[in-house]
Each structure stands twice: as structure tokens, then as C-alpha cells.
Amino acid sequence: MVGDTAKKRRKQPEPRAGRKSSATTFFSWANPQPDISVNSAESEILRDQKILPIISGIQAGSPAEKKQHLIAACSIIEDPICRKLLLKQHIIQIILDKVLADSSQEVVTAGWALLNKIVLYEGYDISLHLYRKDIFSQIIGAITTIKSGVSALATQPKSLSPSDQTLLWDYTSSVLSLLTKLSETTKEILDRVSNEDVLLLASALLGLKIGGNKIAVPENVQIAAVILLDRVTDQNPIAYDLLVKDPGFVGNLMRIYTAKVEDAPLKIAATCSTLHNVISQSLALADDLAEDNKIADARLIAPLTAIIQAVLSKQSPSQEEQQALFLSLETLSDVADCTVETFGHNAPGNTNGIQRKTPGDRSSPHSDLDMEDDDLLEGEDEDEDEDDEENEDDVQEDDDDDDEGASDEELPDDLGADMAMVTGEEGTTARASKKKPFDSPELEFLLVATIPAVLPIATSTPSSEPERNIKLTTISLLSAIARAFALLCSKTHKCKFTLPQSLQQSYLPSTHEIWNILITPILCSNSADLKLAEKITELASHITAFTPSVSVSNNQHKSFLALYNATASIPLKVLCVKVLSNLARCQGTDRIEVNKELGTFFMTTVNKLPFYGDAEPADLPAPEVIIECLNAVYDVYDDMDNDYDEEVFVKLGFLKYLKSFVGRLRAMAKKVDRRTRFELRESADEALINLTEFIKYKTAEREEI
């Protein structure tokens, strides 16, 4: 029996959540770690013959011997059995107590490298353990040493021998990489990493000069520095406030992101991701940083798309290049999400972040992909301002002179033609919905360049876990773009602006292509991959929200019905209902039978709610599913003029069934505990109110006939 004085297990803090994945996510995919046991006879032999000599050598002997054994330990860390055996021999404590305090810089550098590699493989638990062991006391000293060494190298280059310089940069790279991993552990640790000395050092290492003196920082050190900045600036106002004080911070990032992507894809991808974090924070705070530095998400899409194309062009891309591909996909996805959040705001240059330029200025090397501002706004409809003078203050118009001289000649012929198509004359949809058209350079470029670039990944057949996850990430990007188009074109979206009609029409063919070559084949394959099913269904929900008229010639709706019945996942069931609801909104004589099938499904699902006093059926749907099916009925049958309303809603007697749902839905709502499931209870109560109002509406609608 455990005594009263026994230590209670400490509650693990929640991992830090950012908008993007961990910097080590791709590494984890490429290096899956099996569950192993170290209690076998073979493990004991390995411990005695290999592990114990290393542990002994690290603690005793000359600096050269210590370094040799640390390197030996580092070389076997990849082996999960060796790593577990080293941990059982308290390798972490030995490094903290003895190695990092050694008088030899070579030993200390090797110790940081070993510690960094252990954390890379062991992740969250070891990071938290290090934090509780006060690793930051050691890190503060390491940062001081690095700053001193870099300063000496910048002011007196000959003061350090080539071997000492190599040692300094190895030391720097290990410490920065370890800080990146620690920053992704918990919010508390992130705040410790968000230290002025740490962040300004990382920022300085991206420059060509330190303290006014030229310095050549190795590529691997710059990659470590910019990845640290990327992770630390993700939804972190503390880091933002510290970094904006550095006058060279944004300039260094902008210099890197305009380099050739083939030379440093991972560094450029991480730089673009960092700039995106900075832009997002600047817009959230409504400060002048983004405008003053002429930076915008729309400008990041070109290099990120170029990285994707460059990596895809390689027969066998390296793990670093694949990581750059993954980071580019994730950043573009977040750009699409942020476009929804910031749409219609008076962003720098009044064009969602695109600054105006002098015609003919080709400052960016990505000339074949660069979305220049004048190209984006070439077809802007000035007559809209005359039609909607009351909204004149909502969007400030640039001077007419700024638009003169804009030409598609600034883009390649094919891309220029595409851009002209998506920025042409506006239609009447915006006026009819009382929403003012507002350009989105981000979505324009994502449509013209990014979607064609990533579709081959989304439709590929992966042969490894990293490839599979890159495919899933690509589908998430397409889903984010589809969501942005669907929301920003929706009449019900709470925004006074809408996307230009020409842009909506240009996106329409892409939705059908994605539906036909990506969504439909995966549906027909009956894949058992739950994550793939969730991703593809989410994409389908946004595609069909934008255009319900996608083809169902292959019985795609039946595939979603089958997926609904096959899965036990409530979120996936809800997504299936969303897709089916959107498909049911399509009119046409050839779709009435489809509507009848789907409408019957919605009503049958809700009809499983038990009457008062009856036992709950074994297949009673979750409240979330019931609510979504009711929402589908409200959306699909909201207008008697729809060609399917008479044939389906009226002739199948849906109104009678809806009236029978009221009491049963009220009982369902009362069973949802408001204290533990507040949002679900709110949704259930709202569904009940909507049901009673919808019944009144449809009853009155029939009485008018």
C-alpha cells in the first residue's frame, strides 16, 4: 500500500498549441519510433558492452576522450533501444551536471549536440523534464558565450581559428535547435524562450552584418535561427513586441525570402512562415509594422509556391527539402485562413497588404510567380463606388494615377492572362446581395498558381508515411482555400464585402476539377484511412458550399451516405451531413430524385428521436448529428420556389414530421448538460427555436398558395 508521504504524480501541463504544426512534426513522420522493451537479455548485453563504457567515458578521462564518447553516444541515439538504455543510465543528468560545466568547449559543444538529439527523438516528456531541471540556467550562459564569440568573430575575424569558428557555429546551432523544441512544449516554456537575448541573437544571425561588421553565418545556423523565430512568433505577442524593436529584423527576413528557392528551400520557407506570423500579429494589433515595411501575405505566396514546384521537380528530394515542402503547404493554408479573418480590412496599400509600386519595378526574383499589385487590381470596377456611395468610407480607393501603366506584360503570358481573367469586370451578384466587391490578392494568386501546383500532390499515391502526411496537408490547403471562397461568397457571412464576381467565376472550374479528380476517386476507393476520409469530407463540404452543382453521376452522394453509416466518428458524421445538405441544394430535374433521397435521410435521422416514455433506440444519432440534419432541412427547403420543394418537401409530408419533432427535440436538448457541454446545449436550444420558427414559416408559405 502506498504511504501518505508518497509523491503524487504531477499533472502534465497542456502542450502549447500554435496555428501550425511543430517544427519536428515532419521528422516524427520520417522517423517513427516503435514501442520497445529494454528488459531483455539482449538489452542487458548491449548495456554492458556498449552503453556503460560510454557513460563511464563521458564522466572520466581527458577532454578528447569525453568528446569521443559523447560523439559515440550521439551516433547511437537513433536506435530506440540504445536511447532508452542511455536514459536509464541517467544520461540527461550527467550532461546537465558534468558535461555542460566542463572546462573544455569541445566537450560542452558535444554535450549540447547530444542533448539536442535526445530531445529531437524523445520530444515532449524530455523537454518538460529539462525545464523542471532548470535547463534555462544553462541556456542563459550558453547564449552569453555565443554572443561573445559572434561579436569577437565580427570585430576581429582572425581572433578565432577555423576550428574555433566551426566549434562556435556547431555550438550555436545545437542551442538554437534545442530552444525551438523547448518552445513547442508548453506556454510557460514558450514565455521563457521569448527572451530578448535569445530572439535578438537569432534575428542578428540572419543578417550579413553584426555590430556593423560583415560576417558569414553558416547556412545550418541561419536555418536553426529562422526556424526558432518561426516557431516562437506563432501566435506569440511577447516575441512580436521584442522583435519589432530590432530595426534589422524584418529587413533580414525580406532579404532571405527573395533569394532563389533552389538554393535554400527550408530557410526560405521558414522565413516566409515567420513573416506571415509577423504580418498576422501586426494586423491583429492594427499597428503600422506591415504597412511601414511593405510586407503582406500576398507577397509570400509566390516564393512558397515556387518551393513546392522546386521540390516536386526533384526525383528524390532530401528530408530537408520535404520539410520545406511541408512548411510551405502549412503556411499557405494559414494564409488562406487568415484571408477570411482579415477580409475587407483596410490593410496596407488598401489591397489586403499589397503596396503599390512604380510600373516596371521587378525587385522580386520570382518574376514568373510574383503577384504585383497593379496586375492584381487591373480590372477593378470603379463604377461600384458610384453605385454604393454609402460604403465609400469602407474601402479607400487608391489614386487613379497609381493604376495607370499596369500591364499583364509584367507577368508571363499564361499567368498574365489568368490574372486578367480573375480580375475582370464585376457582375451584378454583389450589388444584388448588398455587398461591396473587394479584391483578395491572396486568393487570386492561390487560385492561379498554387492550386495547379499542389493538385499533383493531392492526387498522388503515397508510398511512405511522410508522403502520406504531405498529401493530407495538401488536401488541408485545398480545403482552406475552398473554405475562404465559400465563406467570402456567402450571403450569410458576417461581412459587408464579397469577392468580385469575376474571381468567383474563375474559381468555379477548379471546384469541379477538384471534385472530379480528387474527391470522387477517393470516395469510390472506399479507403479505410479515417484521417484521409475526414480531410476529403471537409474539403467536399467547402467545395459543395461554394457550388452545390458538382456532379453526382457516380453516386457520390451515396458514397457519403455510406461513409456516414460506416464511421463511428461524430465529427465525420456531421461533415457528411454538411456535404449532403449542400448537394441537396442543387436544382434541376435531374437532381430531384437525389434531393428526395437526401431529404428522406435527414428526416429519417431526426425521426429516430424517441417519443416521451419510449426507450432510446440503439442507433440513436448523437445530438450534434440531429442538429446538423435539422439545419440541413432549414437550408435546403427554405424557399417554396425551389423546383424540388413541391416534389419533395410537400409531397413527402415533411411538415407533418417536423411538427412531431418539437417535443422530442426539446427532450433531447434538456439532456445536454449546460455546465459540461455549454456550446452543444446552446446549439440544441437554437435548433429548437429554429424548428418552431421554420414550421410557422412553411405553414404560412402553404397558406399563401
Automatic annotation (TrEMBL):
Please give one Gene Ontology molecular function term for this protein: unfolded protein binding
Instruction: Point out the signal peptide segment.
Output: none
List the residue ranges of the region (Disordered): 1-24, 343-417
Q: Which Gene3D superfamilies match?
A: Leucine-rich Repeat Variant (1.25.10.10)
Name all SYO1-like TPR repeats domain ranges. Answer: 512-700
What domain of life?
Eukaryota
One Pfam entry name: TPR_SYO1
- Positions with biased composition (Basic and acidic residues): 358-369
Could you tell me where the Acidic residues compositional bias lies? 370-416
Gene Ontology annotations of biological process type? protein import into nucleus; ribosomal large subunit biogenesis
- InterPro entries for this protein: ARM-like, ARM-type_fold, SYO1-like, TPR_SYO1
What is stated as this protein's family in its record? Belongs to the nuclear import and ribosome assembly adapter family.
Q: What is this protein called?
A: SYO1-like TPR repeats domain-containing protein
What is the source species? Orbilia oligospora
